[in-house]
Amino acid sequence: MTATAVVTGASSGIGAATARGLAAEGYDVVLVARRADRIEALAEEITRSGHSARAQVLDVTDRDAVDAFAKALGPCDVLVNNAGGAIGTETVAEGDPGDWRRMYEVNVLGVLNMTQALLPELIAGGDGTVLVVSSVAGHGVYEGGGGYVAAKHGAHTLAATLRLELCGEPVRVLEVAPGMVKTEEFSLNRLRGDADRAEAVYEGVPDPLSAEDVADTIVWAVTRPPHVNIDLLVVRPRAQAAQHKIHRVKE
Ligand SMILES: NC(=O)c1ccc[n+]([C@@H]2O[C@H](COP(=O)([O-])OP(=O)(O)OC[C@H]3O[C@@H](n4cnc5c(N)ncnc54)[C@H](OP(=O)(O)O)[C@@H]3O)[C@@H](O)[C@H]2O)c1
Fold first, then answer.
1. Model pTM score
2. Rounded Cα–Cα distance for residues 232 and 176 (Å)
3. Which domain range does residue 32 map to?
4. 8, 11, 81: residue to mutate for ligand 1 pocket, most atoms within 8 A of CB
């Protein structure tokens, strides 16, 4: 039987690229996001290319909706918890608690909701995989990143704790922690729609990662044999040796 993979945040960036990649590997991919038009168009594109995908409009922070989705889904073999993002670049002194709350909701509680809801099917399938897309922000701190850094540390902690708790169950827990990835919307959302500031994030960086680069690592980790658990994979562009060490070429 075809294995089923649920990918959250599949309407853009890393999630969309991961959905394409897993579909090409033969998974029946369930595309989860809030924007129907985008996931429906992607499901159509994947289906047209001879692979299998379906769209599911879902807000991962809405627990009742997540539970209803899980109940209707049936067998599930892979869950890629990718939905997430950053809001703002304010310091801790100036950050808006509402922004912090929203980042915690999607980056941590969204992962918790989806994982709790799908875990029974992931276990029942006999070889389940939960993958969390965290960030290098989940493994270090930087000024102006407080709320996002706290949330991504939460996502990392969830993944690491779950791995311990599931030891002995037939479910792997993987974490992929990307560095700088130039996606269409991530920085634009973080900078509240300011396109110039969003573009400046990547200014002079010879080759930031693309969504496809990260999707490649996710698909690779998911498609290892079931007994191989890629606990944590940190992936950065060559130009970013650390959060504060970015090579930029001056024009
Ligand atoms: N880009 C980077 O530099 C970078 C670096 C490290 C880690 N990451 C992480 O990688 C993941 C993907 O990032 P990206 O760059 O691909 O960002 P993106 O293009 O902004 O994509 C974010 C995705 O999450 C979905 N989403 C947001 N809130 C949601 C919710 N409540 N329920 C369901 N879906 C929701 C969005 O879809 P809808 O709006 O349609 O719901 C969208 O598909 C995120 O977790 C991000 O934190 C990104």
1. 0.98
2. 6
3. 4-246
4. 11
